[in-house]
């Protein structure tokens, strides 16, 4: 299936699949960062902890084939607009907005996993007093970190000025906060949000 940006450039990735597939089957939770976060957010909502949702991806379907009368196959679609970040919601009266990415790289996190419009969106959220961060997973190491948006933005801006195109893992370990993997919730990032943004109001950033 051909999925394209509004400009017509072909998109290579799995965001359309995520937008069109049925709700996650939590019997297979833990296989991807997205599955883990969706299960975690469901736990938060069910227990009255926070209201965080994955943002739907707006997609315009333009071509559908019908190889069988009982089945339709989408063969071409476009993003209606550039997406911002993956998740947003509210916790303890504060707006929360974050992006979630994973990499198989063991030593650094490639900045190509992000897009300029996502970084600009994060800047706007921070400017308006929202809590904004990235959840980064090193999948081969099974390590997950919360990195405040200010650090991600700084590395992005440095890249645009000719700097390196990835964030060293050592820098993420130093500036970020490790999120332990559990059962319920699967990725308890809210406990990290508590310690980073509500204990001392940002002293731990």
TrEMBL record:
Cofactor annotation: Mg(2+)
What's noted on cofactor binding? Binds 1 Mg(2+) ion per subunit.
Taxonomy, superkingdom: Bacteria
Question: Keywords for this entry?
Answer: Cytoplasm, DNA damage, DNA recombination, DNA repair, Endonuclease, Hydrolase, Magnesium, Metal-binding, Nuclease
* Its job: Endonuclease that resolves Holliday junction intermediates in genetic recombination. Cleaves mobile four-strand junctions by introducing symmetrical nicks in paired strands. Promotes annealing of linear ssDNA with homologous dsDNA. Required for DNA repair, homologous recombination and chromosome segregation.
Quote the gene name from the UniProt entry: recU
Q: Which residues bind Mg(2+)?
A: 84, 86, 99, 118
Q: Where is this site: Transition state stabilizer?
A: 101
Localization per record: Cytoplasm
Record-linked InterPro entries: Resolv_RecU, Restrct_endonuc-II-like, tRNA_endonuc-like_dom_sf
Catalytic activity, reaction form: Endonucleolytic cleavage at a junction such as a reciprocal single-stranded crossover between two homologous DNA duplexes (Holliday junction)
E.C. number, please? Answer: 3.1.21.10
Q: Specify whether Isomerase is a keyword of the entry.
A: no
- Name the chain's protein: Holliday junction resolvase RecU
Q: Which Gene3D superfamilies match?
A: 3.40.1350.10
Top-level EC class: hydrolase
């Amino acid at each position: 299936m051909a999925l394209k940006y509004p400009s017509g450039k072909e998109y290579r990735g799995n965001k359309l699949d995520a937008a069109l597939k049925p709700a996650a089957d939590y019997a297979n939770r833990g296989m991807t960062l997205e599955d883990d976060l969706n299960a975690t957010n469901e736990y938060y909502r069910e227990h009255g902890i926070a209201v965080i949702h994955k943002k739907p991806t707006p997609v315009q379907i333009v071509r559908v084939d019908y190889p069988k009368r009982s089945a339709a196959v989408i063969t071409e679609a476009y993003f209606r607009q550039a997406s911002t970040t993956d998740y947003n919601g509210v916790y303890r009266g504060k707006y929360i907005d974050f992006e979630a990415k994973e990499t198989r790289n063991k030593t650094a996190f490639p900045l190509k996993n992000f897009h300029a419009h996502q970084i600009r969106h994060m800047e706007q959220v921070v400017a308006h007093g929202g809590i904004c961060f990235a959840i980064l997973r090193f999948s081969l190491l099974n390590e997950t970190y919360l990195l405040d948006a200010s650090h991600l933005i700084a590395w992005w801006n440095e890249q645009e000025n000719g700097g390196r195109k990835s964030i060293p893992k050592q820098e993420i370990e130093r500036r970020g906060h490790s999120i332990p993997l559990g059962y319920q919730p699967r990725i308890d990032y809210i406990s990290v949000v508590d310690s980073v943004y509500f204990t001392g109001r940002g002293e731990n950033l």
